[in-house]
């Protein structure tokens, strides 16, 4: 009979402080606007092609 496999508890990674919403915009429209602004910033960063 094989030895039982030890299962370690899963600890999810902590969310960095900059990724936690700071405002009270909890409705869908505010969330969509924030997501769009974030994607636009990332797109601009990628297109800038920094060294």
Summarize the structure.
The protein is mainly alpha-helical and 51 residues long. It has one helix at residues 28-48.
Descriptive notes:
The chain has 51 residues and is mainly alpha-helical. The longest helix is centred in the C-terminal third of the chain and has 21 residues. It is elongated and about 55 Å long. The protein contains 1 helix and no strands. Helix content is 41%, strand content 0%.
Give the tags:
1 helix; 51 residues; mainly alpha
Produce the secondary structure layout.
Layout (H helix, E strand, L loop, with lengths): L27 H21 L3
Q: Radius of gyration, Cα only, in angstroms?
A: 20 Å
Structural class: mainly alpha
Strand content: under 5%
Cα separation of the termini = 57 Å
Give the helices and strands as they follow along the chain: H
How would the global form be characterised?
elongated
The oligomeric state of the chains shown is single chain
How many β strands by DSSP?
Answer: 0
Sequence stretches where pLDDT stays below 50 over 5 or more residues: none
The portion of residues assigned to helices is: 40-55%
Q: Biggest sheet: strands, sense, closure?
A: none
What's the average pLDDT?
82
Separate helix tally: 1
